[in-house]
Amino acid sequence: MSDLGFAGAANREMAMRRARGDRDGALAVFRGASVLILALSMGLAGLFLGGVAALDLSALLGLQRIGPQMLALVMLCLALKLVIESQTRLLFGGFYCVQQYARGFLVLAAIRLGQLGASTLALICGGGPVAVALAMVLAELAGGVGMRLALRRRVPWLRYGLHGVRRADIAALLRPALAGMAIPLGLAVSHQGVRLVIGVMLGPAAVVVFTTHRQLTRMVSVVVSLAHPVQAELSALYDRSDPAPFRALSRAAARLLVRAVLAVALGVALIGGMVFVTWTGGAVGFDTVLFGLLLAAAVAESLWLAVFPPVIAINRHIGVARIYLVLSAVLLPCVWAAAAGGLLAIAAVLVVLELVFFATVLRTAWQVTGDSGAAWLRAVLGPGGGGGR
């Protein structure tokens, strides 16, 4: 959240412009976004450090072995990491816009692995919290420099600077960036917020029952991660004059993802009870109805994530994000009211809201691809290749 969604919005815009042959436009977006993200991340880091200075977090958090000065140094390191990491996410856009998503993701994964290794080594060598935090910063910095060098070889025209930066390019990213933030915020409300309401209304025992059932059903959503590489290709394929290739890839991706979601859901439904008992050791009672409702909610959530790529790939998710924010705002009061009916009523609320949003995303996906419901259903659920034009 340190870049407020601007890195993702910029990456998608760069991919679309580069695919249209507007390399100068893609470069202008990159440069404008780099300046804006640097200012935003430094501002957020400053607010973060200001809050740490204003509050005695050591006493507030009950820390006994970390004093105020040590805690301030740790927070400073984490703030620096935040600033560097926000630029790393934008650099990833260089790979994204030339359709080398896998290579860029591999570099990001290597950076994360390097952070883990550096912080673990610092801890093994007897370093304290400051040493561990500093190791994470240095690993992030080294990874960012490495990514920049790799990107310079792969995409030599993508360079930092101020030439060609236009205010209009930056302003155009504002709405899709903030809309992109609505999705993770809404998901946080759906998962963490619901858990908090259950704890307040029904007590900790109900939280344990609910979260164990829900955690198992969320295995369905794992396959949706396959959608991320497709976004880069969809951004590059988008062409208003000929939507057929964009539509064909959208259908093919939906066919793969929807069928994968349904297949995993079937597997979870068949062996979920056995896994649950083994996992909890019988300490938590298995509720078949609750499990079924939460599985239905997980499937609905995974399905809208599966059909979402063509919408967000071209930064057309603003309207969808508004609806998601409204549903997220409605969710917690509905859960609060449903708590009188117990966990089954709360699970039913989740199913209804997820289905409503799935219908919203699906309709928007049809609009941006120029598809029709009947043709899409035949392509995604029918026999054969399912591509079509």
Overview of this structure, please?
This protein is mainly alpha-helical and 389 residues long. The chain has two domains: 6-165, no CATH class; 182-381, no CATH class. Helix content is 80%, strand content 0%. It is built from 15 helices and no strands. The protein has helices at 6-19, 23-54, 57-60, 68-97, 101-124, 129-154, 167-202, 204-217, 227-237, 244-280, 288-307, 309-313, 318-338, 343-369, 373-381. Helix 2 (23-54) runs antiparallel to helix 4 (68-97), helix 2 (23-54) packs across helix 7 and helix 5 (101-124) packs antiparallel against helix 6 (129-154). The radius of gyration is 23 Å and the shape is globular. The two termini are 37 Å apart.
Distinct helical segment count: 15
Mean pLDDT: 88
Largest sheet: none
Radius of gyration: 23 Å
| Total count of strands | 0
Percent of residues in helices = over 70%
What proportion strand? under 5%
Q: What structural class should be given to the helix and strand makeup? A: mainly alpha
Oligomer: single chain
Distance between the termini: 37 Å
* Uncertain stretches: none
Total domains: 2
Order of helices and strands: HHHHHHHHHHHHHHH
Global geometry = globular
Organism: Pseudooceanicola lipolyticus
Subcellular location: Cell membrane
Main location: membrane
GO cellular component, one term: plasma membrane
